[in-house]
């Protein structure tokens, strides 16, 4: 238009010609156009790179409409429905299962619970391994839901609390030293046997040993001697009948020889039951000797 | 340049040029279109730069690499993390498993506590490995062997040791406050068995009978004061071919004082002892009807 005006002015006459001299053609062409094209191209390249980066993010993070892969990010935390691998320690204050689900902790090696003190030394440990379960600590305590002590063990001993301790293994319990108890009793309807298979069995009590069988017998059997010994007191056989079933019967010898060779005695009894002996004669000598 | 030359030639040629090319039009971007273009390009540049900055910021913050974010890899089946991880709020999980060939540690600078809650969020079972000890709490604690055999269990009523054998190795042995119930008490081979009551009495009581056997040795009963064998309704039988009363006192002849009645000890053929009042001669025959 500017050019057209110029031509028109020229055609008309010199009157308009001075006016058109002040108008310059202004536009984008030439080197400016090429620069603009180049600049747009540059922006396009940056845009593509940026888009590639974004695609890269989406790809690496497995982005989908709900989250990243199986991972969902909520305002109150993360939720992961697949498996997660933690190759290094996981620090957490609390690990919970879902409300309707059990929490399973497993390993092909040991699973170990360690508690430490301020210095970092392990003070309590529970470990379950392929071949053994092990715990070490100052003490181990089992209590019921009512906080009653059921079992307690520490370096100085193990305590079984209320109720009773039952040992059901076929070899029973083995005490390398002593068992301290006020009573040893048999299982109901069974016999109680005290046995020392290869050595002796002894019963010691300063105030007396009492053997009672209120509805049966007391039998004492020995391969060799049975010795009843009282240091200062009496030996009392208190029964209606006292029997010596295997006493040998003496045989009469020649009167002269026997009298001269042996001292013989006769057993006599006081009214109180006290036994004493008296030198035997041809007839009873009990009445002649008295020590009642 | 071509156009510029054309333009330059035009003034010189004047009418001739104008007449020769009347169809040539001006081509360029100018006026309001130019300003819009400038503005648009500027806007595009700003957007691209901001977007790139945001993307780089994401990459930076997330520590992006080709495979993932820092040590975190998001895989098609879940998540993989090669560094330490830290959760400040509860971590909910269904299963915690160690890598194959690697142990699993749960450790803490205070306590490690495994809690089982019921539907009302009340604690029903608990295992605590702590700085002071290991504590288990619940209705029951059971320890079983790999084959499912019960080794140990503790509940409100009793503690059961089901292993083949329970061994108590402490130097002070075992202490039972109440009673020990067992069918058999046995000494170890080549060791003696002692039943001892250090300051009081010792009772052996069995209604159906007590049997004492020493198959390869002696039986010995020793006391300081009285030793009493008593049978309420039965008899006392001393069943041995030799019976000795080694410290029986000997009666002495007494010529003065009143004579007390004394008895003579007689023996039936079956060994039954009975008393007969002593006379000048033996009076056993007179009373032999007791032997019937």
TrEMBL record, chain A:
Gene Ontology process terms (BP): cardiac muscle tissue development; heart contraction
Example of a GO cellular component annotation carried by this entry: sarcoglycan complex
Membrane topology: Single-pass type II membrane protein
Locations listed in the record: Cell membrane, Sarcolemma; Cytoplasm, Cytoskeleton
Location, primary (coarse class): membrane
Residue ranges of the TM segments: 35-58
Keyword Membrane: yes
Keywords: Cell membrane, Cytoplasm, Cytoskeleton, Disulfide bond, Glycoprotein, Membrane, Signal-anchor, Transmembrane, Transmembrane helix
UniProt KW Iron-sulfur keyword: no
Annotated function: Component of the sarcoglycan complex, a subcomplex of the dystrophin-glycoprotein complex which forms a link between the F-actin cytoskeleton and the extracellular matrix.
Similarity comment text for this entry: Belongs to the sarcoglycan beta/delta/gamma/zeta family.
Protein name, as recorded: Gamma-sarcoglycan
Originating organism: Danio rerio (Zebrafish)
Gene this chain is encoded by: sgcg
Automatic annotation (TrEMBL), chain B:
This protein's GO CC annotations: cytoskeleton; sarcoglycan complex; sarcolemma
Keywords: Cell membrane, Cytoplasm, Cytoskeleton, Disulfide bond, Glycoprotein, Membrane, Signal-anchor, Transmembrane, Transmembrane helix
TM helices/strands, residue ranges: 36-59
Top-level taxon: Eukaryota
Membrane topology: Single-pass type II membrane protein
Any Pfam family hit: Sarcoglycan_1
GO biological process, one term: determination of left/right symmetry
InterPro entries for the chain: Sarcoglycan, Sarcoglycan_gamma/delta/zeta
Compartments where found: Cell membrane, Sarcolemma; Cytoplasm, Cytoskeleton
Thylakoid in keyword set: no
Endoplasmic reticulum is among the record's keywords: no
Similarity field: Belongs to the sarcoglycan beta/delta/gamma/zeta family.
Name of the protein this chain belongs to: Delta-sarcoglycan
């Amino acid at each position: 238009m500017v050019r057209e005006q110029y031509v028109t002015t020229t055609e008309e006459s010199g009157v308009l010609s001075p006016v058109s001299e002040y108008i310059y053609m202004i536009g984008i062409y030439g080197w400016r156009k090429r620069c603009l094209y180049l600049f747009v191209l540059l922006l396009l390249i940056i845009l593509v790179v940026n888009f590639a980066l974004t695609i890269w993010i989406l790809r690496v993070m497995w982005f989908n409409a709900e989250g990243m892969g199986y991972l969902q990010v909520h305002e109150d935390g993360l939720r992961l429905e697949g498996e997660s691998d933690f190759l290094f320690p996981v620090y957490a204050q609390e690990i919970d299962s879902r409300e309707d689900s059990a929490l399973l902790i497993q390993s092909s090696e040991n699973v170990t619970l360690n508690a430490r003190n301020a210095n970092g030394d392990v003070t309590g440990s529970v470990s379950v391994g392929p071949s053994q379960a092990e715990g070490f600590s100052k003490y181990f305590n089992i209590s019921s839901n009512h906080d009653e002590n059921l079992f307690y063990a520490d370096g100085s001993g193990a305590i079984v609390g209320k109720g009773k301790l039952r040992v059901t293994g076929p070899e029973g319990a083995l005490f390398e030293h002593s068992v301290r108890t006020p009573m040893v009793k048999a299982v109901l309807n069974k016999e109680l046997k005290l046995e020392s298979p290869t050595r002796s069995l002894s019963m010691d009590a300063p105030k007396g040993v009492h053997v009672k069988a209120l509805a049966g017998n007391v039998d004492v059997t020995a391969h060799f001697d049975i010795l009843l010994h009282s240091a200062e007191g009496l030996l009392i056989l208190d029964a209606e009948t006292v029997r010596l079933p295997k006493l040998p019967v003496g045989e009469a010898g020649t009167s002269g020889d026997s009298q001269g060779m042996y001292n013989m005695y006769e057993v006599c009894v006081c009214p109180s039951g006290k036994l004493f002996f008296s030198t035997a004669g041809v007839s009873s000598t009990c009445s002649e000797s008295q020590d009642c | 340049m071509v156009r510029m030359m054309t333009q330059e030639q035009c003034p010189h040629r004047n009418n001739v040029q104008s007449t020769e090319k009347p169809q040539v039009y001006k081509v360029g971007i100018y006026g309001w279109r130019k300003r819009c273009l400038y503005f648009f390009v500027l806007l595009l540049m700003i957007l691209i730069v901001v977007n790139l900055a945001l993307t780089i910021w994401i990459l930076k913050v997330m520590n992006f690499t080709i495979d993932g974010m820092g040590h975190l890899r998001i895989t098609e089946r879940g998540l993989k993390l090669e560094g330490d991880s830290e959760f400040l709020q509860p971590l909910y999980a269904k299963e915690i498993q160690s890598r194959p060939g690697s142990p699993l540690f749960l450790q803490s600078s205070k306590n490690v506590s495994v809690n089982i809650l019921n539907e009302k969020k009340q604690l029903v079972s608990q295992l605590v490995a702590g700085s002071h000890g290991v504590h288990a709490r619940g209705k029951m604690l059971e320890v079983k062997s790999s084959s499912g055999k019960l080794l140990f269990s503790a509940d409100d009523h009793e503690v059961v040791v089901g292993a083949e054998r329970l061994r108590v190795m402490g130097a002070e042995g075992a202490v039972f406050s109440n009673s020990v119930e067992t069918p058999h008490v046995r000494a170890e081979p080549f060791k003696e068995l002692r039943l001892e009551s250090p300051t009081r009495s010792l009772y052996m009581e069995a209604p159906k009978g007590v049997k004492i056997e020493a198959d390869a040795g002696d039986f010995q009963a020793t006391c300081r004061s009285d030793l009493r064998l008593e049978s309420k309704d039965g008899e006392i039988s001393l069943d041995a071919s030799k019976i000795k009363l080694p410290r029986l006192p000997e009666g002495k002849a007494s010529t003065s004082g009143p004579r007390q009645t004394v008895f003579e000890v007689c023996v039936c053929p079956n060994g039954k002892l009975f008393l007969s009042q002593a006379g000048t001669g033996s009076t056993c025959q007179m009373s032999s009807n007791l032997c019937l």
